[in-house]
Amino acid sequence: MKFAVLDFETTGGQPADSIIQVGLVVIEDEQIVARYSSFVHPEVSIPPFIVSLTGIDDELVREAPPIEQVVAEMQPFLQDSVLVAHNAGFDFAFLQRALEDSGYFKFNGMVLDTMDLARICFPTLPSLALGNICTSLEIPHERPHRADSDAEATALLWLKCLSRFQDFPLLTVQRIASVFRDDPSDFAWFIDQEAARKERSADVDPDSDRYFRQFFLAAEDWGTDSPERDEAETSRHLGMPFPEFYEGVKAALRESFDVFEERPAQDQMTEAVASAFGDSSHLLVEAGTGTGKSLGYLLPALYYGIREQKKVIVSTHTINLQEQLRQRDLPLLQQIFPVEFRAALLKGRSHYLCLRKYEQKLTYAEYEHGREDRLMAAQMVAWLTESERGEDEELHFGRGSMEFWRSVSSDADSCLNRNCPWFKKCFYHRARNEANEADLIITNHSLLFTDMKAEHRILPGYKHLIVDEAHNFEDVAVKHLGSEISWYSFVNAVTQLFRDGRGGQLPFVRNRLLHAEDISRDKAGVWIEAIDEAQPALLDIRERWEELASLLYEMLAFSGGDGGEGPLTLRIPEGRQPAGWGTLLDREEELYARMTAVLKSLDKLIVEMKDQEELLELQGLVTNIAGGIKELYRHRDALRFFLKQSDSGFVYWMEGTTQQRIKSLQLLAVPIDVSAMLRDALFSVKDSVILTSATLSVGKTFNYITEQLGLQKAASENRLRTVLLPSPFRYREQALMIIPRNFPVLRGVKGEAEFIAALTDSLAEVAKAMNGRMLVLFTSYRMLRQVHGELKDRLGGEGIQVLGQGIDSTSRSKLVKLFQGGGTSILLGTSSFWEGVDIPGEALSCLAIVRLPFQPPNHPLVEAKSEKLKEAGQNPFMKLSVPQAVIRFKQGFGRLVRTANDKGIVMVYDTRILETYYGKHFLYSLPGPKIEHMTVGQVVPRIHEWMEGEEEA
Q1: Where are the domains of the chain?
Q2: What pLDDT was estimated at residue 209?
Q3: How far apart, in whole angstroms, are the C-alpha atoms of residue 601 and residue 761?
Q4: β pairing state of 282-286 and 215-216
Q5: What's the predicted TM-score (pTM) here?
Q6: 39 membership: H or E segment, kind and range
């Protein structure tokens, strides 16, 4: 097969734009046999952004041949070839227009995309961008964004994919081919050709013992007995007091590193955690970046847990930190800890693949979203040849493929447990088994509260808990101890059971019953009749829900927005419901009764069918339906809870957007105060809970977090200790905070226009002074969008790329990679960029904070909390709003200095930090940077002076 691998550089992203460079590589018999490249003279000037991206400017293409000549030279290479490109739709559109404009017939051969094949052959790639793939697979790529280099890299990637595909086990290749069997695409034809080639050349598979139910699996059966620990050896090492033990471990640490840095703060933390475990007290520890807090709590946790034979749970807020603990910290501890230990990581069920549901999906070709579902299914067939854990975090998800994952992920409602043919291969039960056998279990806040709601049936029993990223603990508690229902989740629950005559679980089972040979026609007929009665009833439920949701959305749109395009929010205060609420209650009453009747009839059907499940081989299908029924019961109850406002301790509100209208509708009900719940369910019943973060204190005290989390009782009983650790970084030498004191104040519409104009001017000047390398944190997405376009125009000619969250990408990780790879970029971010973003080194040398991060005072939860505080005679602003904003501000500030060698500037454009009585709380809570205020005109000279290390003014 002959492949022509093509790449274009262009003046823009539309086919009407001009080609400025062509790169072409020809492959035959899996060898590169020819290359062609040429610059192209465009009819227009090359935009500054394209110049900065490609390095191709007007001068470079001034003497280049016109597109007609280049097409004539390319044409022979394209004949009888299969066209290959990375993101082929882009290059193919430009090729067709160039051919047509040059007087040639359009290309009518096969067109293949390296992104599709790379996704299947290397399913765990973190990104499908060509440069990132080349880095991951160690493919040479000398000049990214040059067509000749891009085409060469794409050709090498294609060859690597072809080789990898042929290396798959025969069964895997055949299974992938079966996924595309009824697909008419060029890619399906290619996969079929490759499968036939594999079948012609395949020998007996030496690893055929890894075949199970038409899959080749990397994962072994779980449940093998773990080796017993040597108790004498354990006693010898862990029988000594902790300080003595710790010194021995530190000696092993020194030997493990060529350069070992003493960390007094880490020593203090380690001793504090060990003491808290030893005398059954709770502990709050603020430990900044660079402390080494992971080892600071893991070492004493293992010492105490193994010595006392008690499990210790470590909970994080983010998956990123879980993975860091698994991949970096625990392997280090395995090397230096003197006793063997077992550690396990347990995530929420939905993070694990359910092999039974996935097998059913492939067997019955349930590809509801066409091409994307098939690609995802094939990618996962390949993934199973290498995955030991079956976690979603390992996979690269294409746009829209999360929907496929949700349909095949593990869930409690549809689990067959030991009756499942996949039970001994099950990824979730493997993780549960490992957790049950482990000394140390790493999980996340979400699963911790899910376990709490499930009466502790998920996590192994524990009395000792470490909460990392504890500044998020209250927010996660609020979310998980409340309820949420959306238009989409309700509709999806109904359509999973019945979409139409061919779609959904009920029609699928009905079709199986029609053709079942091992059951009487009478019994099958009764069940088919029950399904036929349920299907229109489910359609009626969906229609009733949509009518009710429409009324709710109308109420939200009328009262919940400011008339703009922003998000809509409407609180439903207890006893003060909007006009028309009674009508909604009547509609809910009817929907509740209808759902109860239908779900009860389906419950009865499921019970009857389960008696015959082995004969019908419908066990899994019936269990899926049972899971769908339970989900609809939950939606029914959540809707009633919301509309009847069943608990006065909750706050109720609706959210949505003007763009997606009813489809964006969400109904939320969350507890106003979770402190009592946390006190009773956690701090009063656990022996020791350690809470740690880089941002727990406000004004050097823990009063705020103690009250929010319900730790006052523990404090009054002398069961609460607090430790505020000094930062290991030299902030006074590493970070300069500049506050332009004459900056406009943001007040009213006129004030906003003046503020944004001044902000854009200053950001542009600072970006030029810093040569990009700048992260700008906003509190308003609307303001981010306003600034983004203006900055892009101003900085494009300077070779500085401007990246905006939600504009250039919605993926935080993708934006961070683009920012780090760009070298001279400025990244504008909102809420999710204030924490958890780690960009060490010179890639980030300037942080700009546009506004102090106060939560909107009219947010329903903030409003409800404020009302409670006022009733208690307290000042909500100082008691709630300021502490929340201070912690958020500290998180944002922490994005700049990530290592001992980082140096940079923090710009704060909110003069309230200088001019108000509460501003000092923000400044006093910081870890000691140099703080200066000056006029706007003095900012850039001071930046140059600071960054060049000259004597300070």
Answers
A1: 2-167, 486-671, 731-947
A2: 78
A3: 66
A4: unpaired
A5: 0.90
A6: strand 31-39
